[in-house]
DNA sequence: GTAGGGTTAG
């Protein structure tokens, strides 16, 4: 048995209403909605409040439905607006919160003390610094800066987005600092890697609760300081699932998979139930270590949860785990069996096929994806281009590369270029690969030149090989002399693991990765106008959202 | 009906 992360919280009103108390899943929700329409309650304000609450908060998977319902309500009240903001902020798409708030302002609905904590939570989750600062201004304008909840959320926002000075000023200027404010500051220092400052706050806190302990433990875990984390873990007066998850994810991060698995056993013995997050950590441990047997057991546990309803994230993690453990058939089976999928589900299976010996199937499945509503992203194309490279399909690869740029407006990143160079090099088109590098909008990194160098060796092109080698040496001399030195030291000692680590470090940091851009859709126009109204400078025509590592980042304006 | 901690794809 594992417990689901999201609990179905009931509003006080729900407790008085049997029909809503029984509304615990999407199907029932739709039935109740149908009953409302049939019985003429679909314009009753209280019934609508319940309906919005159930779809936006109580049943997290229904948030999309909540948005559709909400759009049809002619004059939603403040409670409904706040409920929608709350639901959006905690959903998988927090970026929908700000356009919603902008619409609220446009409708001349005055916010109350509940409004801003939700909006700020969204800004924090997606690190929308500029928008969050504008919201901070609104908080002051409407006079909520002294509201305890709002102020704590503001501190958390600034601390989490790297503005420790602002967070500190807000914190110092508080009449009564509660444990939430202390924990927010501790988390902020820990996040920027200042563990000694974080620890000082943690030790100075007048009182600590479970969350403060978890914040400090997580701080150590994120910096790989597992010994300190363990020390606190042994000292903590009470543990919850988050405490266990922090430790498990820490051991996975520092590749101590066996310890992570042992922690999981220990956790169950202590009577704590794993949740979705525990499972995600453990599945990634299986994927990285090839522990198929453990992965299969986890799969069984997951299926016991919630009458076998598999969440999208867990389905995605299972696909990845099976693919990386060499069980590609099981990976496809999980993918096919998923009732709901997202773009990550497609990316997981496409990458699984591409990287584990099934490039043709990857390409076929990608064509299937294009026939669905799912829009591929930059990660999708990494998988597809790898598949073309491994299958030797040069024409298809060139086609998909252009499709990505022209149809989906995705700027190719260093991995995409790497795939193309690899593909051309493998096919013996070394000269074309060289010309291709010349056309790159971003500076080639070590991987690109090494790939080309390898191809030149195989195909016996001495002249181009020499040029690739020169470029590689120049790059390493210019940008990563220390890394090379370090790498050589490892190599001298025969520590090839170290060589690989340094090389990875070089390739990850040596090249400035350009962010991909995508257009804000028309639904977000209200948000744009909101930003413009807020005297935020946006150069004309620069209506962009940056997409970095799959996460939407707001424009830097 | 409000705030803080843990998370999957290259």
From TrEMBL:
* Keyword Nucleus set for record: no
Signal sequence coordinates? none
Chain segments annotated as coiled-coil in the UniProt record? none
Q: Which residues cross the membrane?
A: none
Instruction: Show me the PPR repeat boundaries.
Output: 77-111, 178-212, 240-274, 311-341, 342-376
Q: Which UniProt keywords apply?
A: Repeat
Keyword Ribonucleoprotein listed? The answer is: no
Q: Domain of life, per the record?
A: Eukaryota
InterPro entries the record matches: E_motif, PPR_At4g14850-like_plant, PPR_rpt, TPR-like_helical_dom_sf
Protein's name according to its UniProt entry = Pentatricopeptide repeat-containing protein
Species for this entry:
Cinchona calisaya
User: Taxonomically, what lineage is the organism?
Assistant: Eukaryota, Viridiplantae, Streptophyta, Embryophyta, Tracheophyta
């Amino acid at each position: 048995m594992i417990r689901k992360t999201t609990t179905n919280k009931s509003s006080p009103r729900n407790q008085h209403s049997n029909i809503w108390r029984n509304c615990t899943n999407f199907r029932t929700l739709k039935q109740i909605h149908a009953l409302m329409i049939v019985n003429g309650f679909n314009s009753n304000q209280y019934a609508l409040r319940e309906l919005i609450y159930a779809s936006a908060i109580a049943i997290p998977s229904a948030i999309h439905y909540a948005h559709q319902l909400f759009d049809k309500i002619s004059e939603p009240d403040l409670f409904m607006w706040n409920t929608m903001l709350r639901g959006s902020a905690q959903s998988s798409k927090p970026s929908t919160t700000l356009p919603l708030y902008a619409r609220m302002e446009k409708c001349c609905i005055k916010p109350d003390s509940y409004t801003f904590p939700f909006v700020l939570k969204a800004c924090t989750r997606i690190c929308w610094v500029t928008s969050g600062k504008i919201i901070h201004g609104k908080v002051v304008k409407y006079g909520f800066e002294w509201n305890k909840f709002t102020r704590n959320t503001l501190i958390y926002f600034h601390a989490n987005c790297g503005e420790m000075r602002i967070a500190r000023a807000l914190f110092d200027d508080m009449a009564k600092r509660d444990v939430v404010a202390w924990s927010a500051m501790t988390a902020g220092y820990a996040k920027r890697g200042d563990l000694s400052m974080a620890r000082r706050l943690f030790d100075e806190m007048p009182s600590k609760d479970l969350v403060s302990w978890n914040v400090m433990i997580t701080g150590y875990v994120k910096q790989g300081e597992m010994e300190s984390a363990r020390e606190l873990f042994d000292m903590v007066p009470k543990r919850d699932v988050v405490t266990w998850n922090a430790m498990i994810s820490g051991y996975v991060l520092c590749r101590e998979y066996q310890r992570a698995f042992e922690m999981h056993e220990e956790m169950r013995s202590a009577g704590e139930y794993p949740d979705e997050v525990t499972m995600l950590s453990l599945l990634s441990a299986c994927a990285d270590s090839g522990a198929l047997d453990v992965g299969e057991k986890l799969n069984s546990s997951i299926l016991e949860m919630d009458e076998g309803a598999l969440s999208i994230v867990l389905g995605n993690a299972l696909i990845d785990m099976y693919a990386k453990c060499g069980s590609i058939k099981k990976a496809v089976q999980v993918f096919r069996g998923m009732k709901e999928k997202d773009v990550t589900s497609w990316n997981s299976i496409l990458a699984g096929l591409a990287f584990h010996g099934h490039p043709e199937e990857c390409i076929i499945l990608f064509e299937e994806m294009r026939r669905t509503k799912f829009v591929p992203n930059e990660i999708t194309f990494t998988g597809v281009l790898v598949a073309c490279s491994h299958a030797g399909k040069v024409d298809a690869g060139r086609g998909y590369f252009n499709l990505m740029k022209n149809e989906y407006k995705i700027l190719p990143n260093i991995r995409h270029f790497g795939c193309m160079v690899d593909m051309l090099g493998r096919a013996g088109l070394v000269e074309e690969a060289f010309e291709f590098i010349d056309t790159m909008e971003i500076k080639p990194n070590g991987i690109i030149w090494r790939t080309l160098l390898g191809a030149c060796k195989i195909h016996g092109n001495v002249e181009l090989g020499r040029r690739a080698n020169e470029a590689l040496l120049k790059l390493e001399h210019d940008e990563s002399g220390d890394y090379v030195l370090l790498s050589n030291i490892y190599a001298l000692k025969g520590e090839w693991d170290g060589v690989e680590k340094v090389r990875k470090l070089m390739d990850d940091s040596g090249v400035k990765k350009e962010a991909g851009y995508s257009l804000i859709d028309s639904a977000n126009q209200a948000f744009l106008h909101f930003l413009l109204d807020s005297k935020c400078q946006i150069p004309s025509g620069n209506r962009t959202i940056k997409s970095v590592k799959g996460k939407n980042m707001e424009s830097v304006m």
